[in-house]
Automatic annotation (TrEMBL):
InterPro entries linked to this entry: N1-like, Ribonuclease/ribotoxin
Keyword vocabulary terms for this entry: Hydrolase, Nuclease
Keyword Hydrolase: yes
Pfam families listed in its UniProt record: Ribonuclease
Source organism (scientific name): Hydrogenophaga bisanensis
Name the record gives this protein: Ribonuclease domain-containing protein
Length: 144
């Protein structure tokens, strides 16, 4: 086998690998795109699949909702800070409208992926709150 045959084999393998990688990336991006949806106004009805009742939240989420209504205290320093809505999955609002809160996950030493994001001018009495268990990839409006 000469140098040209070896090189041709590597090029062929490289093309096969690149094709496989392209398929994997395209599939992964397609999955993420399922979560993407256009922003809605606060007055638009939310589909039932995009809702969760307060009693259906994990116990820790219910406790965080109570802490929000009481104005704290919150477990994490970042709780109550402005949520930028960079994902644009929540209805559009001016900067500072949304605030995020951590929903603790049992047995984790870090904040985890679960959050509640509330919008409104009065943090203790939000206009709407949303729950995410996948770190902002999807949201469900919390019904009270």
């Amino acid at each position: 086998m000469d140098l040209h045959q070896i090189r041709a084999g590597w090029i062929k393998r490289g093309k096969t690998w690149l094709t496989g990688l392209t398929i994997v990336l395209a599939t992964g991006l397609g999955t993420n795109m399922v979560h993407a949806r256009s922003p809605q106004s606060l007055s638009e009805p939310v589909a039932a699949a995009d809702q969760i009742h307060l009693t259906q939240l994990p116990r820790q989420g219910q406790q965080v909702m109570e802490q929000i209504r009481q104005g704290g205290p919150f477990r994490y320093e970042k709780d109550g800070t402005v949520f930028g809505n960079r994902e644009r999955l929540l209805p559009r609002a001016k900067r500072g409208y949304y605030r995020e809160y951590t929903v603790p996950t049992p047995d984790l030493r870090h904040r985890g992926a679960r959050r509640i994001v509330c919008g409104g001018e009065q943090p203790r009495n939000p206009d709407a709150c949303y729950y995410t268990e996948d770190h902002y990839s999807s949201f469900r409006r919390i019904l009270q």
